[in-house]
């Protein structure tokens, strides 16, 4: 059972989307807050600068240097810096030692791009907003306000955002992990319940929790579909079985009457015509028996009687049974059995499946050809190969030959009902094994994998594309490895 990828679950995606949206929205929100706060505080600083400038400008010009020094004295840290300069830019009073080059005396508050030095700092400058005005006597008065408070407030806002994101995302991840476990557990339960359905048991249903959520709605829809499919399949199967069963009785009676008529007509020309009719009726009865046999094998309850089977003994019985037939056709019939593990199944059914496969190999191999029966262990379990030098089955027909009544172009002129491989497929599917139809180095090959298939592989079908062989396994049966 394939475990769902936790990172691809809907809950994980929702948490990731929520976290991304929260982070983006938090950045936008903090950006707006910082912009509004900065704009408001800049307005307050500008008003303070304008008011302080108005106060100093209205002071008596003779007393202005003293007022400027007094303002600088009460602000030793230079948070609100004041400076008075002569027309040549020389400092006359205050704690601003040099006239800022990027500050024209136009009575406009400006942000100093190069910043201003602070007396309480050894090196470097701080961001500041400043205002300069030219007095009537040509002197220049400068007032500057440190804006590091605004920067500090912005840093506090960004730190608050980081804390908010961390305190939201971390619990969100923990909560998402806990929330994901419930749906993940239910998905695994649905997967386990769907495995028998995938293998053909339409009587199974998907479990429902009773919560009425999306998964329950989906499971309910699937269960309704399964019920309808099971009903339709049962009706079709019942009709086919009833037809085969009901027609078998009158056909058997007809055969008995024709046989009696043949006995009475012994020596007459009409006896050959009656014998031909009996042969045709036997063929129809054989088809009906095969149909009923397939229906019987499709009952999965038969697997309850499975036991450990020695595949080597079964293969020896098949070889002993068909060796005289192969000898009559001049076909060497080779048996190669290596040590193998036991397989769980029904020995009689496995004998029937292998007998069908070997019988087909002998029938379609030309007289004088070779038939080989090999058994060994591969990387996953016991494997049985039936190889012959016949024409084989074309690649485009290998998925169809296990269907009922299908007959390929190579077999239309050969006597048969087209149900032999259907019976084999039903037996293999009942055991949960796999059947592979392919080519060998010198002819046809049919492989029976006597172990349970993996998830994603359907029992009883042609698995040549889903069960690749290693080079060592290919060499063991004398054929090229599949890639």
TrEMBL record:
Gene Ontology CC: plasma membrane
Catalytic reaction(s) noted: ATP + protein L-histidine = ADP + protein N-phospho-L-histidine
Does the keyword section mention Transmembrane?
A: yes
Instruction: State the InterPro entries in the record.
Output: HAMP_dom, HATPase_C_sf, HATPase_dom, His_kinase_dom, HisK_dim/P_dom, HisK_dim/P_sf, Sig_transdc_His_kin-like_C, TCS_sensor_his_kinase
Entry GO MF terms:
phosphorelay sensor kinase activity
Location of the protein in the cell: Membrane
| Biological source species | Dyella soli
Keyword annotations for this protein, in alphabetical order, are:
Kinase, Membrane, Phosphoprotein, Transferase, Transmembrane, Transmembrane helix, Two-component regulatory system
Annotated transmembrane regions: 12-33, 156-179
Q: What is the top EC class of this enzyme, as a single word? A: transferase
Domain Histidine kinase, residue spans: 242-471
Q: Which PROSITE patterns match?
A: HAMP, HIS_KIN
Protein name, as recorded: histidine kinase
Q: Which residues form the HAMP domain?
A: 185-234
In the record, what lineage is assigned to the organism producing the protein?
Bacteria, Pseudomonadati, Pseudomonadota, Gammaproteobacteria, Lysobacterales
Which superkingdom heads the taxonomic lineage of this protein's source? Answer: Bacteria
* EC number(s) from the headed UniProt entry: 2.7.13.3
């Amino acid at each position: 059972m394939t475990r769902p990828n936790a990172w691809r679950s809907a809950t994980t995606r929702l948490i990731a989307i929520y976290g991304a949206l929260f982070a983006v929205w938090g950045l936008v929100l903090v950006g707006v807050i910082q912009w509004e706060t900065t704009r408001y505080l800049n307005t307050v600083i500008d008003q303070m600068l304008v008011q302080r400038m108005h106060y100093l400008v209205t002071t008596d010009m003779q007393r202005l240097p003293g007022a400027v020094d007094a303002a600088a004295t009460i602000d030793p840290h230079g948070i609100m810096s004041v400076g008075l300069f002569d027309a040549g830019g020389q400092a006359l009073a205050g704690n601003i030692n040099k006239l800022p080059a990027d500050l024209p005396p136009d009575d406009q508050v400006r942000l100093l791009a190069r910043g201003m030095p602070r007396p309480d700092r050894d090196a470097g400058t701080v961001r500041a907003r400043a205002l300069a005005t030219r007095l009537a006597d040509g002197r220049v008065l400068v007032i500057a306000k440190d804006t590091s408070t605004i920067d500090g407030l912005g840093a506090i806002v960004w730190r608050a955002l980081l804390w908010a994101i961390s305190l939201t995302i971390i619990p969100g991840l923990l909560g998402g992990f806990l929330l994901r476990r419930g749906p993940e557990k239910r998905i695994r339960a649905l997967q386990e319940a769907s495995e028998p359905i995938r293998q053909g048991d339409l009587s199974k249903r998907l479990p429902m929790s009773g919560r009425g959520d999306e998964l329950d709605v989906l499971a309910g829809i699937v269960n309704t579909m399964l019920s309808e499919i099971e009903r339709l399949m049962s009706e079709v199967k019942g009709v086919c079985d009833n037809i085969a069963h009901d027609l078998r009785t009158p056909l058997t009676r007809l055969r008995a009457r024709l046989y009696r008529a043949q006995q009475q007509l012994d020596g007459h020309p009409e006896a050959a015509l009656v014998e031909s009719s009996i042969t045709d009726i036997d063929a129809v009865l054989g088809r009906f028996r095969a149909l009923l046999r397939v229906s019987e094998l499709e009952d999965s309850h038969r697997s309850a009687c499975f036991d450990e089977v020695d595949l080597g003994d079964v293969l020896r019985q098949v070889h002993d049974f068909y060796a005289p037939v192969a000898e009559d056709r001049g076909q060497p019939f080779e048996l190669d059995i290596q040590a193998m593990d036991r397989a769980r199944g029904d020995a009689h059914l496995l004998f029937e499946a292998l007998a069908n496969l070997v019988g087909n190999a002998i029938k379609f191999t030309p007289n004088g050809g070779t038939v080989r029966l090999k058994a060994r262990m591969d990387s996953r379990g016991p494997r049985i190969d039936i190889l012959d030098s016949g024409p084989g089955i074309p690649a485009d027909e290998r998925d169809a030959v296990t269907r009922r009544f299908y007959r390929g172009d190579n077999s239309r002129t050969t006597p048969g009902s087209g149900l032999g491989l259907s019976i084999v497929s039903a037996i293999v599917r009942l055991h949960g094994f796999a059947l592979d139809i392919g080519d060998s180095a010198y002819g046809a090959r049919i492989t029976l994998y006597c172990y349970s298939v993996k998830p994603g592989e359907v029992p009883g079908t042609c698995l040549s594309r889903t069960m690749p062989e290693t080079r060592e396994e290919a060499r063991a049966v004398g054929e090229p490895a599949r890639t």
